[in-house]
Amino acid sequence: MTFPDTRARRLRDHPVLRRMVAEMDLSPRRLIQPLFVKEALAEPAPIASMPGQRQFGPAQIAEEARRVAEAGVPAVLLFGIPAEKDAQGTQASAPDGVVQRAIGAIKQAAPDLAVIADICLCEYTDHGHCGVLGEAAGRPTVDNDATLPRLAAAAVSCARAGADAVAPSDMMDGRVGAIREALDEADLAHVPIFSYAVKYASHFYGPFREAAESPPAFGDRRGYQMDPANTDEALREAADDLDEGADLLIVKPALAYGDIIRRVKETFAVPVAAYTVSGACAMVEAAAARGWIDRQAVIREVLLSLRRAGADLVITYWAAEVAAYSPLP
Ligand code: PBG
Protein backbone atom coordinates (compact mmCIF):
# COMPACT_ATOMS: atom_id res chain seq x y z
CA MET A 1 0.00 0.00 0.00
CA THR A 2 1.22 3.43 -0.83
CA PHE A 3 -0.04 6.99 -0.75
CA PRO A 4 -2.84 7.97 -0.33
CA ASP A 5 -3.60 4.83 1.79
CA THR A 6 -0.43 5.13 3.89
CA ARG A 7 0.19 8.43 5.57
CA ALA A 8 3.10 8.41 8.03
CA ARG A 9 1.97 11.80 9.27
CA ARG A 10 -1.30 10.48 10.76
CA LEU A 11 0.31 9.46 14.03
CA ARG A 12 2.84 12.25 13.93
CA ASP A 13 0.45 15.11 13.53
CA HIS A 14 -1.62 14.31 16.64
CA PRO A 15 0.19 15.41 19.81
CA VAL A 16 -1.22 12.73 22.11
CA LEU A 17 -0.85 9.85 19.68
CA ARG A 18 2.66 10.99 18.77
CA ARG A 19 3.72 10.72 22.40
CA MET A 20 1.96 7.38 22.87
CA VAL A 21 3.80 5.71 20.01
CA ALA A 22 7.25 7.06 20.90
CA GLU A 23 9.58 4.06 21.20
CA MET A 24 12.17 5.63 23.49
CA ASP A 25 12.00 7.84 26.52
CA LEU A 26 14.34 9.29 29.10
CA SER A 27 12.71 7.87 32.18
CA PRO A 28 14.85 8.87 35.19
CA ARG A 29 15.40 5.19 36.01
CA ARG A 30 17.65 5.05 32.93
CA LEU A 31 20.01 7.74 34.22
CA ILE A 32 23.19 7.71 36.29
CA GLN A 33 24.70 10.92 37.69
CA PRO A 34 28.52 11.19 37.98
CA LEU A 35 29.74 13.10 41.05
CA PHE A 36 33.21 14.29 42.05
CA VAL A 37 34.30 14.37 45.69
CA LYS A 38 37.54 16.13 46.54
CA GLU A 39 39.40 15.71 49.80
CA ALA A 40 40.10 18.87 51.77
CA LEU A 41 37.70 20.95 49.68
CA ALA A 42 35.72 23.26 51.97
CA GLU A 43 33.12 24.59 49.52
CA PRO A 44 31.79 23.25 46.20
CA ALA A 45 34.15 24.35 43.41
CA PRO A 46 32.90 25.03 39.87
CA ILE A 47 34.66 23.13 37.07
CA ALA A 48 35.52 25.71 34.41
CA SER A 49 35.41 23.35 31.42
CA MET A 50 32.15 21.74 32.54
CA PRO A 51 29.65 24.56 33.06
CA GLY A 52 27.11 23.74 35.74
CA GLN A 53 29.24 20.92 37.21
CA ARG A 54 31.08 21.17 40.52
CA GLN A 55 33.52 19.25 42.66
CA PHE A 56 32.13 18.66 46.15
CA GLY A 57 33.98 18.48 49.45
CA PRO A 58 33.51 15.57 51.87
CA ALA A 59 31.12 17.72 53.91
CA GLN A 60 28.75 18.36 50.98
CA ILE A 61 28.83 15.20 48.90
CA ALA A 62 26.09 13.35 50.79
CA GLU A 63 23.76 16.33 50.54
CA GLU A 64 24.37 16.58 46.80
CA ALA A 65 23.75 12.85 46.40
CA ARG A 66 20.47 13.21 48.27
CA ARG A 67 19.46 15.99 45.87
CA VAL A 68 20.17 13.63 42.95
CA ALA A 69 18.08 10.90 44.60
CA GLU A 70 15.23 13.33 45.20
CA ALA A 71 15.26 14.24 41.51
CA GLY A 72 14.41 10.58 40.86
CA VAL A 73 17.80 9.42 39.59
CA PRO A 74 18.51 5.94 40.98
CA ALA A 75 22.33 5.95 40.96
CA VAL A 76 25.46 8.04 41.20
CA LEU A 77 28.89 7.21 39.77
CA LEU A 78 31.47 8.45 42.23
CA PHE A 79 34.97 9.80 41.46
CA GLY A 80 37.41 10.76 44.22
CA ILE A 81 40.23 13.26 44.21
CA PRO A 82 42.65 12.61 47.08
CA ALA A 83 44.80 15.21 48.85
CA GLU A 84 47.89 13.00 48.48
CA LYS A 85 48.94 11.34 45.26
CA ASP A 86 51.84 8.90 44.80
CA ALA A 87 53.29 6.57 42.17
CA GLN A 88 51.18 3.59 43.28
CA GLY A 89 47.91 5.46 43.77
CA THR A 90 47.85 4.28 47.38
CA GLN A 91 44.84 6.38 48.33
CA ALA A 92 42.62 4.50 45.87
CA SER A 93 42.40 1.60 48.31
CA ALA A 94 42.73 3.44 51.64
CA PRO A 95 39.90 2.38 53.99
CA ASP A 96 39.57 6.02 55.06
CA GLY A 97 40.14 7.40 51.53
CA VAL A 98 38.07 10.25 50.18
CA VAL A 99 35.80 8.02 48.10
CA GLN A 100 35.41 5.35 50.76
CA ARG A 101 34.26 7.93 53.31
CA ALA A 102 31.96 9.57 50.77
CA ILE A 103 30.33 6.22 50.00
CA GLY A 104 29.57 5.72 53.70
CA ALA A 105 28.14 9.21 54.05
CA ILE A 106 25.98 8.90 50.92
CA LYS A 107 24.58 5.52 51.95
CA GLN A 108 23.55 7.07 55.25
CA ALA A 109 22.00 10.18 53.73
CA ALA A 110 20.28 8.42 50.80
CA PRO A 111 20.06 4.69 51.54
CA ASP A 112 18.04 3.92 48.41
CA LEU A 113 20.46 5.63 46.05
CA ALA A 114 22.79 3.14 44.36
CA VAL A 115 26.42 4.18 44.66
CA ILE A 116 28.69 3.01 41.86
CA ALA A 117 32.39 3.47 42.61
CA ASP A 118 34.55 4.28 39.59
CA ILE A 119 37.69 2.18 39.95
CA CYS A 120 40.85 3.58 38.38
CA LEU A 121 44.23 4.83 39.54
CA CYS A 122 44.53 7.99 37.42
CA GLU A 123 43.00 10.30 40.03
CA TYR A 124 45.33 8.81 42.67
CA THR A 125 48.70 8.55 40.92
CA ASP A 126 51.14 11.48 40.84
CA HIS A 127 51.89 10.67 37.15
CA GLY A 128 48.19 10.60 36.21
CA HIS A 129 48.24 7.24 34.42
CA CYS A 130 45.54 4.67 35.07
CA GLY A 131 47.99 2.07 36.40
CA VAL A 132 51.42 1.76 37.93
CA LEU A 133 54.41 2.44 35.70
CA GLY A 134 56.85 -0.07 34.28
CA GLU A 135 58.80 -0.74 31.14
CA ALA A 136 58.22 -2.83 28.03
CA ALA A 137 60.90 -3.30 25.38
CA GLY A 138 62.88 -0.45 26.87
CA ARG A 139 59.95 2.00 26.71
CA PRO A 140 58.15 3.42 29.74
CA THR A 141 54.62 2.09 29.91
CA VAL A 142 51.85 1.18 32.31
CA ASP A 143 52.56 -2.22 33.85
CA ASN A 144 49.36 -4.17 33.28
CA ASP A 145 49.85 -7.08 35.65
CA ALA A 146 51.34 -5.01 38.47
CA THR A 147 48.26 -2.77 38.28
CA LEU A 148 45.72 -5.57 38.75
CA PRO A 149 46.19 -6.09 42.52
CA ARG A 150 45.97 -2.30 43.02
CA LEU A 151 42.65 -2.15 41.18
CA ALA A 152 41.36 -5.21 43.01
CA ALA A 153 42.28 -3.62 46.36
CA ALA A 154 40.52 -0.37 45.38
CA ALA A 155 37.39 -2.29 44.37
CA VAL A 156 37.32 -4.31 47.60
CA SER A 157 37.78 -1.22 49.76
CA CYS A 158 34.97 0.64 47.97
CA ALA A 159 32.68 -2.38 48.22
CA ARG A 160 33.50 -2.71 51.93
CA ALA A 161 32.66 0.97 52.36
CA GLY A 162 29.21 0.18 50.99
CA ALA A 163 29.40 0.68 47.21
CA ASP A 164 26.51 -1.08 45.45
CA ALA A 165 28.65 -1.74 42.37
CA VAL A 166 32.22 -1.14 41.20
CA ALA A 167 33.05 0.22 37.74
CA PRO A 168 36.64 -0.35 36.59
CA SER A 169 37.57 2.29 33.99
CA ASP A 170 41.31 1.66 33.63
CA MET A 171 41.35 -0.69 30.56
CA MET A 172 43.99 -3.06 31.91
CA ASP A 173 43.67 -6.61 30.55
CA GLY A 174 42.36 -9.08 33.10
CA ARG A 175 41.13 -6.56 35.61
CA VAL A 176 37.55 -7.75 35.72
CA GLY A 177 38.72 -11.25 36.61
CA ALA A 178 41.15 -9.94 39.22
CA ILE A 179 38.45 -7.74 40.78
CA ARG A 180 35.85 -10.54 40.73
CA GLU A 181 38.23 -12.93 42.48
CA ALA A 182 39.20 -10.37 45.12
CA LEU A 183 35.57 -9.43 45.81
CA ASP A 184 34.58 -13.08 46.13
CA GLU A 185 37.46 -13.79 48.51
CA ALA A 186 36.45 -10.80 50.63
CA ASP A 187 32.89 -12.14 51.02
CA LEU A 188 31.62 -9.55 48.55
CA ALA A 189 30.32 -11.98 45.94
CA HIS A 190 27.06 -10.02 45.80
CA VAL A 191 28.72 -6.83 44.50
CA PRO A 192 28.35 -6.50 40.71
CA ILE A 193 31.01 -5.22 38.31
CA PHE A 194 29.93 -2.55 35.83
CA SER A 195 32.82 -2.83 33.43
CA TYR A 196 33.97 -0.05 31.15
CA ALA A 197 34.62 -2.86 28.70
CA VAL A 198 34.74 -0.57 25.71
CA LYS A 199 36.65 2.59 26.42
CA TYR A 200 38.28 4.52 23.62
CA ALA A 201 41.35 6.76 23.85
CA SER A 202 39.20 9.82 23.30
CA HIS A 203 39.83 13.52 23.17
CA PHE A 204 36.29 13.96 24.43
CA TYR A 205 37.68 13.31 27.95
CA GLY A 206 39.56 16.62 28.04
CA PRO A 207 37.32 18.54 30.46
CA PHE A 208 37.03 15.54 32.81
CA ARG A 209 40.74 15.53 33.37
CA GLU A 210 40.40 19.02 34.79
CA ALA A 211 37.45 17.90 36.92
CA ALA A 212 39.25 14.81 38.23
CA GLU A 213 42.69 16.45 38.22
CA SER A 214 43.98 13.43 36.35
CA PRO A 215 45.77 14.39 33.11
CA PRO A 216 48.70 12.06 32.35
CA ALA A 217 51.98 13.81 33.24
CA PHE A 218 53.61 12.36 30.11
CA GLY A 219 52.47 10.50 27.00
CA ASP A 220 48.82 9.59 26.54
CA ARG A 221 46.47 6.70 27.19
CA ARG A 222 46.62 5.08 23.75
CA GLY A 223 48.69 2.20 25.12
CA TYR A 224 45.69 0.95 27.08
CA GLN A 225 42.54 2.66 25.81
CA MET A 226 41.08 1.65 22.43
CA ASP A 227 41.78 3.15 19.03
CA PRO A 228 38.75 5.13 17.71
CA ALA A 229 39.36 3.50 14.33
CA ASN A 230 38.31 0.08 15.64
CA THR A 231 35.02 -1.75 16.09
CA ASP A 232 35.83 -5.50 16.18
CA GLU A 233 38.13 -4.86 19.11
CA ALA A 234 35.16 -3.55 21.09
CA LEU A 235 33.47 -6.94 20.77
CA ARG A 236 36.58 -8.78 21.93
CA GLU A 237 36.91 -6.46 24.93
CA ALA A 238 33.27 -7.00 25.83
CA ALA A 239 33.52 -10.79 25.40
CA ASP A 240 36.61 -10.97 27.63
CA ASP A 241 35.01 -8.90 30.37
CA LEU A 242 31.85 -10.99 30.33
CA ASP A 243 33.95 -14.17 30.55
CA GLU A 244 35.76 -12.68 33.53
CA GLY A 245 32.51 -11.93 35.31
CA ALA A 246 31.30 -8.47 34.27
CA ASP A 247 27.60 -7.95 35.04
CA LEU A 248 27.01 -4.85 32.91
CA LEU A 249 29.02 -3.27 30.09
CA ILE A 250 29.79 0.42 29.70
CA VAL A 251 30.61 2.01 26.35
CA LYS A 252 32.54 5.26 26.46
CA PRO A 253 32.42 7.83 24.94
CA ALA A 254 28.79 7.51 23.91
CA LEU A 255 28.15 10.42 21.55
CA ALA A 256 29.83 9.62 18.20
CA TYR A 257 29.98 5.92 19.23
CA GLY A 258 26.35 4.89 18.66
CA ASP A 259 27.45 2.17 16.25
CA ILE A 260 29.55 0.59 18.99
CA ILE A 261 26.71 0.70 21.51
CA ARG A 262 24.45 -1.02 18.99
CA ARG A 263 26.97 -3.74 18.10
CA VAL A 264 27.74 -4.50 21.74
CA LYS A 265 24.07 -4.62 22.71
CA GLU A 266 23.09 -6.82 19.77
CA THR A 267 26.01 -9.18 20.12
CA PHE A 268 25.86 -9.84 23.85
CA ALA A 269 22.28 -9.03 24.94
CA VAL A 270 23.39 -7.89 28.40
CA PRO A 271 22.66 -4.58 30.15
CA VAL A 272 24.63 -1.79 28.49
CA ALA A 273 25.31 1.71 29.82
CA ALA A 274 26.53 4.54 27.58
CA TYR A 275 28.62 7.33 29.11
CA THR A 276 28.08 10.79 27.57
CA VAL A 277 31.45 12.18 28.56
CA SER A 278 32.68 15.60 29.55
CA GLY A 279 33.64 16.73 26.03
CA ALA A 280 30.15 16.03 24.68
CA CYS A 281 28.72 18.01 27.56
CA ALA A 282 31.17 20.86 26.93
CA MET A 283 30.28 21.07 23.22
CA VAL A 284 26.57 21.33 23.94
CA GLU A 285 27.06 23.87 26.71
CA ALA A 286 29.39 26.01 24.60
CA ALA A 287 27.01 26.11 21.64
CA ALA A 288 24.03 26.76 23.90
CA ALA A 289 25.84 29.59 25.68
CA ARG A 290 26.24 31.29 22.30
CA GLY A 291 22.58 30.86 21.54
CA TRP A 292 23.37 28.59 18.59
CA ILE A 293 21.28 25.65 19.77
CA ASP A 294 18.31 25.08 22.05
CA ARG A 295 20.13 23.59 25.04
CA GLN A 296 17.36 21.49 26.58
CA ALA A 297 16.13 20.15 23.26
CA VAL A 298 19.64 19.16 22.18
CA ILE A 299 20.39 17.46 25.51
CA ARG A 300 17.22 15.44 25.13
CA GLU A 301 18.10 14.55 21.55
CA VAL A 302 21.64 13.48 22.44
CA LEU A 303 20.45 11.23 25.27
CA LEU A 304 17.62 9.75 23.19
CA SER A 305 20.13 8.89 20.46
CA LEU A 306 22.03 6.76 22.96
CA ARG A 307 18.88 4.96 24.08
CA ARG A 308 18.06 4.39 20.40
CA ALA A 309 21.54 3.03 19.79
CA GLY A 310 20.78 0.35 22.38
CA ALA A 311 21.86 1.73 25.74
CA ASP A 312 19.67 0.59 28.62
CA LEU A 313 21.26 3.18 30.88
CA VAL A 314 22.85 6.55 30.22
CA ILE A 315 25.57 8.00 32.41
CA THR A 316 25.31 11.76 32.04
CA TYR A 317 26.30 14.94 33.88
CA TRP A 318 22.77 16.15 33.06
CA ALA A 319 21.03 13.24 34.86
CA ALA A 320 19.48 15.16 37.76
CA GLU A 321 18.53 18.01 35.46
CA VAL A 322 16.94 15.78 32.81
CA ALA A 323 15.01 13.85 35.45
CA ALA A 324 13.16 17.09 36.18
CA TYR A 325 12.22 17.79 32.54
CA SER A 326 8.62 17.27 31.63
CA PRO A 327 7.86 15.29 28.47
CA LEU A 328 7.98 17.28 25.25
CA PRO A 329 4.57 18.71 24.35
C1 PBG B 1 39.48 7.47 33.99
C2 PBG B 1 38.24 8.11 33.52
C3 PBG B 1 38.13 9.07 32.51
C4 PBG B 1 36.78 9.40 32.43
C5 PBG B 1 36.10 8.64 33.37
N1 PBG B 1 37.03 7.82 34.02
C6 PBG B 1 39.09 9.81 31.70
C7 PBG B 1 40.29 9.21 31.15
O1 PBG B 1 40.34 8.06 30.75
O2 PBG B 1 41.24 9.99 31.11
C8 PBG B 1 36.23 10.41 31.47
C9 PBG B 1 34.87 10.87 31.75
C10 PBG B 1 34.50 12.10 31.03
O3 PBG B 1 35.23 12.62 30.17
O4 PBG B 1 33.41 12.61 31.33
N2 PBG B 1 39.39 6.96 35.26
**Heterogens:** ligand PBG
What integer value in Å does the Rg equal? Answer: 20 Å
CATH top level is Alpha Beta
In oligomeric terms, what are we looking at? single chain
Number of domains: 1
Estimate the strand proportion.
15-25%
CATH architecture: Alpha-Beta Barrel
For CATH, the homologous superfamily is named as Aldolase class I
**Residue runs with pLDDT of under 50 for 5 or more positions:** none
Helix content: 25-40%
**Shape assignment:** globular
Q: Give the helix/strand class.
A: alpha/beta
The description of the largest β-sheet is: 10 strands, mixed
**CATH topology descriptor:** TIM Barrel
Terminus-to-terminus distance: 31 Å
DSSP E strands, number: 12
Residue-averaged pLDDT: 96
SSE ordering: HHEEEHEHEEEHEHEHHEHEHHEH
Q: Give the count of helical stretches.
A: 12
